[in-house]
Protein backbone atom coordinates (compact mmCIF):
# COMPACT_ATOMS: atom_id res chain seq x y z
CA UNK A 1 0.00 0.00 0.00
CA UNK A 2 1.37 3.39 -0.97
CA UNK A 3 2.16 5.96 1.70
CA UNK A 4 3.57 9.45 1.84
CA UNK A 5 6.87 9.67 3.71
CA UNK A 6 7.57 13.25 4.81
CA UNK A 7 10.33 14.91 6.80
CA UNK A 8 9.20 18.32 7.98
CA UNK A 9 10.86 21.42 9.25
CA UNK A 10 11.85 23.13 5.98
CA UNK A 11 10.19 26.40 4.90
CA UNK A 12 8.73 25.77 1.45
CA UNK A 13 9.92 28.27 -1.14
CA UNK A 14 9.62 28.63 -4.89
CA UNK A 15 6.85 28.41 -7.50
CA UNK A 16 4.02 25.96 -8.00
CA UNK A 17 1.64 25.71 -10.95
CA UNK A 18 -1.98 24.86 -10.12
CA UNK A 19 -3.88 22.27 -12.16
CA UNK A 20 -7.40 22.53 -13.56
CA UNK A 21 -10.29 22.48 -11.12
CA UNK A 22 -11.27 18.90 -10.28
CA UNK A 23 -14.84 19.81 -9.31
CA UNK A 24 -15.39 21.75 -12.54
CA UNK A 25 -13.78 19.02 -14.63
CA UNK A 26 -16.13 16.32 -13.34
CA UNK A 27 -19.23 18.29 -14.36
CA UNK A 28 -17.73 19.30 -17.70
CA UNK A 29 -16.62 15.76 -18.62
CA UNK A 30 -20.13 14.48 -17.92
CA UNK A 31 -21.66 17.32 -19.96
CA UNK A 32 -19.45 16.47 -22.94
CA UNK A 33 -21.43 13.27 -23.64
CA UNK A 34 -24.61 15.32 -24.24
CA UNK A 35 -23.72 15.89 -27.90
CA UNK A 36 -22.92 13.46 -30.71
CA UNK A 37 -20.13 15.80 -31.82
CA UNK A 38 -16.56 15.94 -30.51
CA UNK A 39 -15.69 18.05 -27.48
CA UNK A 40 -12.05 18.88 -26.76
CA UNK A 41 -11.41 19.82 -23.14
CA UNK A 42 -8.12 21.35 -21.99
CA UNK A 43 -6.59 21.82 -18.53
CA UNK A 44 -8.14 18.58 -17.24
CA UNK A 45 -6.39 17.72 -13.96
CA UNK A 46 -4.52 14.42 -14.06
CA UNK A 47 -6.05 12.96 -10.89
CA UNK A 48 -7.74 9.66 -10.15
CA UNK A 49 -11.27 11.15 -10.02
CA UNK A 50 -11.13 12.49 -13.58
CA UNK A 51 -9.48 9.32 -14.90
CA UNK A 52 -12.16 7.21 -13.22
CA UNK A 53 -15.00 9.24 -14.71
CA UNK A 54 -13.40 9.10 -18.17
CA UNK A 55 -13.13 5.30 -17.92
CA UNK A 56 -16.81 5.09 -16.97
CA UNK A 57 -17.76 7.36 -19.88
CA UNK A 58 -15.74 5.17 -22.23
CA UNK A 59 -17.40 2.03 -20.86
CA UNK A 60 -20.88 3.26 -21.83
CA UNK A 61 -19.85 3.67 -25.46
CA UNK A 62 -18.45 7.20 -25.74
CA UNK A 63 -15.16 7.68 -27.56
CA UNK A 64 -12.47 9.08 -25.27
CA UNK A 65 -9.15 10.14 -26.77
CA UNK A 66 -6.27 11.43 -24.67
CA UNK A 67 -4.60 14.16 -26.74
CA UNK A 68 -2.04 14.87 -24.02
CA UNK A 69 -1.83 14.57 -20.24
CA UNK A 70 -4.24 17.47 -19.68
CA UNK A 71 -6.31 17.47 -22.88
CA UNK A 72 -9.03 14.98 -23.72
CA UNK A 73 -11.42 14.51 -26.65
CA UNK A 74 -14.88 13.08 -25.93
CA UNK A 75 -17.55 12.08 -28.43
CA UNK A 76 -20.85 10.72 -27.12
CA UNK A 77 -22.12 9.44 -30.48
CA UNK A 78 -21.35 5.80 -29.62
CA UNK A 79 -23.58 5.73 -26.52
CA UNK A 80 -26.38 3.39 -27.53
CA UNK A 81 -29.71 3.06 -25.78
CA UNK A 82 -29.36 -0.72 -25.56
CA UNK A 83 -26.33 -0.61 -23.26
CA UNK A 84 -24.98 2.88 -22.76
CA UNK A 85 -27.68 4.31 -20.52
CA UNK A 86 -26.99 1.93 -17.62
CA UNK A 87 -23.85 2.86 -15.71
CA UNK A 88 -22.64 0.39 -13.11
CA UNK A 89 -19.05 -0.75 -12.97
CA UNK A 90 -16.06 -0.83 -10.69
CA UNK A 91 -15.12 2.70 -11.67
CA UNK A 92 -18.30 4.67 -11.20
CA UNK A 93 -19.01 3.63 -7.62
CA UNK A 94 -15.66 5.08 -6.53
CA UNK A 95 -16.49 8.74 -7.09
CA UNK A 96 -19.17 11.10 -5.91
CA UNK A 97 -19.43 12.89 -9.25
CA UNK A 98 -20.90 9.80 -10.92
CA UNK A 99 -24.28 11.38 -10.24
CA UNK A 100 -23.62 13.98 -12.97
CA UNK A 101 -24.12 11.19 -15.49
CA UNK A 102 -27.74 10.97 -14.33
CA UNK A 103 -28.43 14.58 -15.34
CA UNK A 104 -26.42 14.30 -18.56
CA UNK A 105 -28.04 11.04 -19.75
CA UNK A 106 -31.52 12.08 -18.61
CA UNK A 107 -31.18 15.37 -20.46
CA UNK A 108 -29.98 13.80 -23.70
CA UNK A 109 -31.81 10.45 -23.78
CA UNK A 110 -34.62 10.98 -21.23
CA UNK A 111 -33.38 7.89 -19.43
CA UNK A 112 -30.55 7.07 -17.04
CA UNK A 113 -29.71 4.15 -14.78
CA UNK A 114 -26.61 5.01 -12.75
CA UNK A 115 -25.00 3.38 -9.72
CA UNK A 116 -25.09 5.42 -6.53
CA UNK A 117 -21.74 7.08 -5.97
CA UNK A 118 -18.96 6.60 -3.46
CA UNK A 119 -16.06 9.00 -2.84
CA UNK A 120 -15.00 10.41 0.49
CA UNK A 121 -16.87 9.45 3.62
CA UNK A 122 -17.53 12.87 5.13
CA UNK A 123 -21.03 12.30 6.37
CA UNK A 124 -24.42 12.24 4.72
CA UNK A 125 -24.51 13.77 1.26
CA UNK A 126 -27.94 12.68 0.01
CA UNK A 127 -29.12 13.24 -3.53
CA UNK A 128 -32.64 14.21 -2.50
CA UNK A 129 -32.30 17.67 -4.06
CA UNK A 130 -31.12 16.14 -7.33
CA UNK A 131 -34.14 13.83 -7.41
CA UNK A 132 -36.53 16.66 -6.54
CA UNK A 133 -35.15 18.70 -9.43
CA UNK A 134 -35.43 15.87 -11.93
CA UNK A 135 -38.99 15.14 -10.84
CA UNK A 136 -39.94 18.81 -11.15
CA UNK A 137 -38.73 18.66 -14.76
CA UNK A 138 -41.07 15.72 -15.37
CA UNK A 139 -38.93 12.67 -14.71
CA UNK A 140 -39.80 9.63 -12.64
CA UNK A 141 -36.93 8.70 -10.34
CA UNK A 142 -36.51 5.48 -8.36
CA UNK A 143 -33.76 3.95 -6.25
CA UNK A 144 -33.65 0.39 -7.55
CA UNK A 145 -31.99 -2.77 -6.30
CA UNK A 146 -28.22 -2.81 -6.28
CA UNK A 147 -28.00 0.81 -5.22
CA UNK A 148 -28.81 2.42 -8.55
CA UNK A 149 -30.77 5.53 -9.50
CA UNK A 150 -33.16 5.08 -12.43
CA UNK A 151 -34.60 8.24 -13.97
CA UNK A 152 -36.81 8.42 -17.04
CA UNK A 153 -39.22 10.80 -18.72
CA UNK A 154 -41.27 10.90 -21.89
CA UNK A 155 -40.32 14.54 -22.09
CA UNK A 156 -38.53 17.02 -19.82
CA UNK A 157 -40.34 20.33 -19.44
CA UNK A 158 -38.82 23.45 -17.93
CA UNK A 159 -40.12 24.49 -14.52
CA UNK A 160 -39.42 26.61 -11.45
CA UNK A 161 -37.16 24.80 -8.97
CA UNK A 162 -36.41 26.12 -5.50
CA UNK A 163 -33.45 24.48 -3.77
CA UNK A 164 -34.23 23.87 -0.10
CA UNK A 165 -30.53 24.13 0.70
CA UNK A 166 -27.61 25.37 -1.37
CA UNK A 167 -26.13 22.36 -3.17
CA UNK A 168 -23.32 22.50 -5.72
CA UNK A 169 -23.94 18.98 -7.03
CA UNK A 170 -27.70 19.41 -7.38
CA UNK A 171 -27.31 22.79 -9.09
CA UNK A 172 -24.99 21.31 -11.72
CA UNK A 173 -27.08 18.17 -12.20
CA UNK A 174 -30.33 20.10 -12.69
CA UNK A 175 -28.59 22.41 -15.17
CA UNK A 176 -27.44 19.37 -17.15
CA UNK A 177 -30.96 17.96 -17.37
CA UNK A 178 -32.58 21.34 -18.06
CA UNK A 179 -30.47 22.46 -21.03
CA UNK A 180 -32.29 20.03 -23.35
CA UNK A 181 -35.72 20.34 -21.67
CA UNK A 182 -38.58 22.09 -23.41
CA UNK A 183 -39.11 25.65 -22.24
CA UNK A 184 -37.56 27.67 -19.43
CA UNK A 185 -36.20 26.41 -16.11
CA UNK A 186 -35.49 28.71 -13.17
CA UNK A 187 -33.27 27.41 -10.35
CA UNK A 188 -33.62 29.53 -7.21
CA UNK A 189 -31.25 29.40 -4.23
CA UNK A 190 -28.66 27.96 -6.62
CA UNK A 191 -25.08 27.44 -5.55
CA UNK A 192 -22.65 30.12 -6.79
CA UNK A 193 -19.27 28.34 -6.76
CA UNK A 194 -16.77 29.09 -9.55
CA UNK A 195 -17.03 25.56 -10.92
CA UNK A 196 -20.78 26.00 -11.44
CA UNK A 197 -20.01 29.02 -13.59
CA UNK A 198 -17.41 26.97 -15.46
CA UNK A 199 -19.85 24.12 -16.21
CA UNK A 200 -22.47 26.65 -17.36
CA UNK A 201 -19.93 28.39 -19.61
CA UNK A 202 -18.98 25.05 -21.17
CA UNK A 203 -22.62 24.17 -21.80
CA UNK A 204 -23.19 27.60 -23.37
CA UNK A 205 -20.15 26.98 -25.60
CA UNK A 206 -21.96 23.80 -26.70
CA UNK A 207 -25.04 25.82 -27.61
CA UNK A 208 -27.00 25.85 -24.34
CA UNK A 209 -28.77 28.99 -23.11
CA UNK A 210 -27.91 29.49 -19.43
CA UNK A 211 -27.94 32.86 -17.68
CA UNK A 212 -27.26 33.81 -14.07
CA UNK A 213 -24.63 31.19 -13.20
CA UNK A 214 -22.64 32.59 -10.29
CA UNK A 215 -25.78 34.16 -8.77
CA UNK A 216 -28.47 32.48 -6.69
CA UNK A 217 -30.95 32.46 -9.61
CA UNK A 218 -30.01 30.50 -12.74
CA UNK A 219 -32.25 30.63 -15.79
CA UNK A 220 -32.02 27.91 -18.42
CA UNK A 221 -33.88 28.12 -21.72
CA UNK A 222 -33.96 24.67 -23.29
CA UNK A 223 -32.49 24.06 -26.74
CA UNK A 224 -33.15 21.19 -29.15
CA UNK A 225 -29.56 19.99 -29.40
CA UNK A 226 -26.00 20.68 -28.30
CA UNK A 227 -22.93 20.72 -30.54
CA UNK A 228 -19.22 20.06 -30.12
CA UNK A 229 -16.93 22.58 -28.49
CA UNK A 230 -13.41 23.33 -27.32
CA UNK A 231 -12.98 24.53 -23.76
CA UNK A 232 -10.32 25.07 -21.08
CA UNK A 233 -11.14 24.37 -17.41
CA UNK A 234 -10.53 27.02 -14.75
CA UNK A 235 -7.72 26.59 -12.18
CA UNK A 236 -8.39 24.61 -9.00
CA UNK A 237 -9.32 26.93 -6.14
CA UNK A 238 -8.80 24.25 -3.49
CA UNK A 239 -5.42 23.05 -4.71
CA UNK A 240 -4.29 26.68 -4.71
CA UNK A 241 -5.67 27.19 -1.20
CA UNK A 242 -3.87 24.07 0.01
CA UNK A 243 -0.49 25.41 -1.15
CA UNK A 244 -1.33 28.79 0.38
CA UNK A 245 -1.92 27.08 3.73
CA UNK A 246 1.26 25.05 3.25
CA UNK A 247 3.31 28.23 2.79
CA UNK A 248 1.98 29.67 6.05
CA UNK A 249 2.33 26.47 8.10
CA UNK A 250 5.97 26.01 7.08
CA UNK A 251 6.77 29.75 7.34
CA UNK A 252 7.64 29.71 3.66
CA UNK A 253 7.35 31.90 0.57
CA UNK A 254 5.48 30.39 -2.39
CA UNK A 255 4.40 31.95 -5.68
CA UNK A 256 1.24 30.08 -6.68
CA UNK A 257 0.69 30.35 -10.44
CA UNK A 258 -2.28 29.72 -12.75
CA UNK A 259 -4.96 30.89 -10.32
CA UNK A 260 -7.89 33.31 -10.35
CA UNK A 261 -7.18 35.48 -7.26
CA UNK A 262 -10.82 36.48 -6.84
CA UNK A 263 -11.74 32.83 -6.25
CA UNK A 264 -9.24 32.77 -3.35
CA UNK A 265 -10.41 35.90 -1.50
CA UNK A 266 -12.04 34.08 1.43
CA UNK A 267 -8.88 32.01 1.96
CA UNK A 268 -6.53 34.98 1.49
CA UNK A 269 -8.40 37.13 4.01
CA UNK A 270 -8.16 34.48 6.75
CA UNK A 271 -4.45 33.92 6.17
CA UNK A 272 -3.87 37.68 6.36
CA UNK A 273 -5.83 37.78 9.64
CA UNK A 274 -3.42 35.13 10.92
CA UNK A 275 -0.40 37.30 10.11
CA UNK A 276 0.60 36.02 6.67
CA UNK A 277 1.30 38.24 3.68
CA UNK A 278 -0.67 37.62 0.47
CA UNK A 279 0.22 39.53 -2.70
CA UNK A 280 -2.17 39.20 -5.64
CA UNK A 281 -1.11 39.39 -9.29
CA UNK A 282 -3.18 38.91 -12.45
CA UNK A 283 -3.04 35.11 -12.46
CA UNK A 284 -0.94 34.26 -9.40
CA UNK A 285 -0.61 34.93 -5.67
CA UNK A 286 2.45 35.01 -3.44
CA UNK A 287 2.00 33.80 0.13
CA UNK A 288 4.62 34.45 2.83
CA UNK A 289 4.82 33.96 6.58
CA UNK A 290 7.82 34.29 8.86
CA UNK A 291 6.61 35.37 12.29
CA UNK A 292 4.17 34.19 14.94
CA UNK A 293 0.68 33.35 13.70
CA UNK A 294 -2.42 34.88 15.24
CA UNK A 295 -5.59 32.92 16.09
CA UNK A 296 -8.88 33.61 14.32
CA UNK A 297 -12.37 32.24 13.76
CA UNK A 298 -13.43 30.42 10.59
CA UNK A 299 -16.90 29.28 9.53
CA UNK A 300 -17.43 27.34 6.32
CA UNK A 301 -20.15 28.74 4.07
CA UNK A 302 -21.28 28.41 0.46
CA UNK A 303 -19.29 30.52 -2.02
CA UNK A 304 -18.21 33.31 -1.69
CA UNK A 305 -17.79 32.24 1.94
CA UNK A 306 -14.92 30.14 3.25
CA UNK A 307 -14.95 26.78 1.39
CA UNK A 308 -15.66 23.58 3.30
CA UNK A 309 -12.97 21.89 1.21
CA UNK A 310 -10.38 24.15 2.91
CA UNK A 311 -11.62 23.60 6.45
CA UNK A 312 -9.14 20.88 7.42
CA UNK A 313 -6.19 22.74 5.90
CA UNK A 314 -6.91 26.06 7.67
CA UNK A 315 -7.56 24.26 10.98
CA UNK A 316 -4.17 22.56 10.69
CA UNK A 317 -2.44 25.92 10.27
CA UNK A 318 -4.40 27.37 13.21
CA UNK A 319 -3.04 24.57 15.40
CA UNK A 320 0.31 26.41 15.07
CA UNK A 321 -1.08 29.87 15.93
CA UNK A 322 -0.62 31.50 19.33
CA UNK A 323 -3.91 31.47 21.26
CA UNK A 324 -7.34 29.94 20.75
CA UNK A 325 -9.14 29.63 17.43
CA UNK A 326 -12.58 28.27 16.53
CA UNK A 327 -13.40 26.52 13.25
CA UNK A 328 -17.09 25.87 12.55
CA UNK A 329 -18.23 23.46 9.83
CA UNK A 330 -21.68 24.40 8.52
CA UNK A 331 -21.77 22.39 5.26
CA UNK A 332 -21.01 18.72 6.08
CA UNK A 333 -21.15 16.76 9.30
CA UNK A 334 -18.45 14.27 10.28
CA UNK A 335 -15.67 16.36 8.79
CA UNK A 336 -13.45 16.62 11.88
CA UNK A 337 -12.14 13.07 11.92
CA UNK A 338 -8.66 14.26 11.03
CA UNK A 339 -8.46 15.94 14.45
CA UNK A 340 -7.49 12.66 16.12
CA UNK A 341 -4.60 12.35 13.68
CA UNK A 342 -3.38 15.87 14.44
CA UNK A 343 -3.49 15.00 18.15
CA UNK A 344 -0.86 12.32 17.45
CA UNK A 345 1.39 15.16 16.37
CA UNK A 346 0.79 17.22 19.50
CA UNK A 347 -2.15 19.38 18.38
CA UNK A 348 -4.67 20.49 21.00
CA UNK A 349 -8.15 20.43 19.47
CA UNK A 350 -11.51 19.86 21.13
CA UNK A 351 -14.54 19.15 18.97
CA UNK A 352 -17.91 20.38 20.24
CA UNK A 353 -20.78 19.71 17.88
CA UNK A 354 -19.91 21.24 14.53
CA UNK A 355 -17.05 23.36 15.90
CA UNK A 356 -13.41 22.66 16.68
CA UNK A 357 -11.80 24.69 19.46
CA UNK A 358 -8.09 24.90 18.78
CA UNK A 359 -5.39 25.85 21.28
CA UNK A 360 -2.21 26.63 19.41
CA UNK A 361 1.04 24.70 20.00
CA UNK A 362 4.59 25.71 19.12
CA UNK A 363 5.31 22.76 16.82
CA UNK A 364 4.06 19.44 15.54
CA UNK A 365 6.01 16.22 16.01
CA UNK A 366 6.25 13.59 13.26
CA UNK A 367 3.85 10.64 13.52
CA UNK A 368 2.19 7.85 11.56
CA UNK A 369 -1.13 9.18 10.26
CA UNK A 370 -4.15 7.96 8.31
CA UNK A 371 -6.07 10.09 5.80
CA UNK A 372 -9.83 9.75 6.26
CA UNK A 373 -10.79 11.71 3.15
CA UNK A 374 -9.32 13.82 0.36
CA UNK A 375 -9.00 17.19 2.12
CA UNK A 376 -8.10 15.65 5.49
CA UNK A 377 -5.26 13.87 3.72
CA UNK A 378 -3.99 17.17 2.29
CA UNK A 379 -4.20 18.72 5.77
CA UNK A 380 -2.09 15.91 7.23
CA UNK A 381 0.54 16.51 4.54
CA UNK A 382 0.63 20.19 5.56
CA UNK A 383 1.03 19.18 9.22
CA UNK A 384 3.80 16.72 8.38
CA UNK A 385 5.71 19.33 6.36
CA UNK A 386 5.56 21.70 9.34
CA UNK A 387 6.48 19.02 11.89
CA UNK A 388 9.79 18.09 13.45
CA UNK A 389 10.90 14.65 12.28
CA UNK A 390 9.47 12.08 9.89
CA UNK A 391 5.77 11.42 9.35
CA UNK A 392 4.03 8.70 7.36
CA UNK A 393 0.58 9.26 5.84
CA UNK A 394 -1.50 6.17 5.00
CA UNK A 395 -4.48 5.86 2.62
CA UNK A 396 -3.06 8.37 0.16
CA UNK A 397 -5.49 7.11 -2.49
CA UNK A 398 -7.85 9.74 -1.12
CA UNK A 399 -5.33 12.51 -1.72
CA UNK A 400 -4.60 11.30 -5.25
CA UNK A 401 -8.28 11.76 -6.06
CA UNK A 402 -7.83 15.53 -6.11
CA UNK A 403 -4.15 16.54 -6.17
CA UNK A 404 -2.03 16.14 -9.28
CA UNK A 405 1.65 15.23 -8.72
CA UNK A 406 1.34 16.33 -5.09
CA UNK A 407 4.63 14.91 -3.85
CA UNK A 408 6.53 16.14 -6.90
CA UNK A 409 5.21 19.70 -6.48
CA UNK A 410 6.19 19.68 -2.80
CA UNK A 411 9.72 18.50 -3.65
CA UNK A 412 10.10 21.35 -6.16
CA UNK A 413 9.39 23.73 -3.26
CA UNK A 414 12.16 22.19 -1.18
CA UNK A 415 10.01 19.80 0.84
CA UNK A 416 11.13 16.25 1.62
CA UNK A 417 8.19 14.07 0.56
CA UNK A 418 8.07 10.81 -1.35
CA UNK A 419 5.63 8.04 -2.19
CA UNK A 420 6.82 4.77 -0.61
CA UNK A 421 5.27 1.32 -0.98
CA UNK A 422 7.24 -0.87 1.42
CA UNK A 423 9.01 -0.79 4.75
CA UNK A 424 12.30 -0.98 2.89
CA UNK A 425 11.57 2.09 0.77
CA UNK A 426 10.42 3.93 3.91
CA UNK A 427 13.67 3.15 5.68
CA UNK A 428 15.63 4.33 2.65
CA UNK A 429 13.70 7.60 2.78
CA UNK A 430 14.47 8.05 6.47
CA UNK A 431 18.18 7.54 5.81
CA UNK A 432 18.18 10.03 2.92
CA UNK A 433 15.95 12.64 4.55
CA UNK A 434 18.38 14.10 7.05
Could you explain how this protein is built, in words?
Strand 6, helix 3 and strand 7 form a beta-alpha-beta unit. 31% of the residues lie in helices and 25% in strands. About 1% of the residues have low confidence. Helix 3 runs parallel beside helix 5, helix 7 runs parallel beside helix 11 and helix 9 runs parallel beside helix 11. The longest helix is centred in the middle third of the chain and has 13 residues. A 4-stranded mixed beta sheet has the order 22-23-1-24, sandwiched between helices. It has a 4-stranded mixed beta sheet with strand order 2-15-17-16. It has a 4-stranded mixed beta sheet with strand order 4-5-3-14, with helices on one face. It has 434 residues and is of the alpha/beta class.
Secondary-structure blueprint:
Layout: E1 3-7, E2 13-17, H1 22-31, E3 38-42, H2 48-59, E4 63-68, E5 71-75, E6 86-87, H3 100-109, E7 111-115, H4 128-136, E8 140-144, E9 148-152, E10 160-162, H5 168-178, E11 184-188, H6 194-205, E12 209-211, E13 217-221, E14 229-232, H7 237-249, E15 253-257, H8 265-273, E16 277-280, E17 284-288, E18 297-299, H9 311-318, E19 324-328, H10 339-344, E20 348-352, E21 355-359, E22 368-370, H11 374-386, E23 390-394, H12 397-400, H13 406-412, E24 416-420, H14 423-432
Parallel strand pairs: 2-15, 3-14, 6-7, 10-11, 18-19, 22-23
Antiparallel strand pairs: 1-23, 1-24, 3-5, 4-5, 7-9, 8-9, 11-13, 12-13, 15-17, 16-17, 19-21, 20-21
Helix pairs in contact: 1-2, 1-6, 3-5, 4-5, 5-6, 7-9, 7-11, 9-11
Amino acid sequence: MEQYAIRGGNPLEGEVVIAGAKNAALGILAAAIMTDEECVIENVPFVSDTRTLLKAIENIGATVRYIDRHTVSICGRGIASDHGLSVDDEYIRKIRASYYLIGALLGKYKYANVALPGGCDIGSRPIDLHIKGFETLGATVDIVSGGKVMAEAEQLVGSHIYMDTVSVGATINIMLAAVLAEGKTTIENAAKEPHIVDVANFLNTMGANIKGAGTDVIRVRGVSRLHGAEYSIIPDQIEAGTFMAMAVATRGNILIKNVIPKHLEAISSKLVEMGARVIEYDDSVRVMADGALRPTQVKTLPYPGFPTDMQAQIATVLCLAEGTSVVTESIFENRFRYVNELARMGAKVRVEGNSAIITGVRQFTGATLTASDLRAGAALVIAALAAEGVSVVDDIRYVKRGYEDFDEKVRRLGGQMEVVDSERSLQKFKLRAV
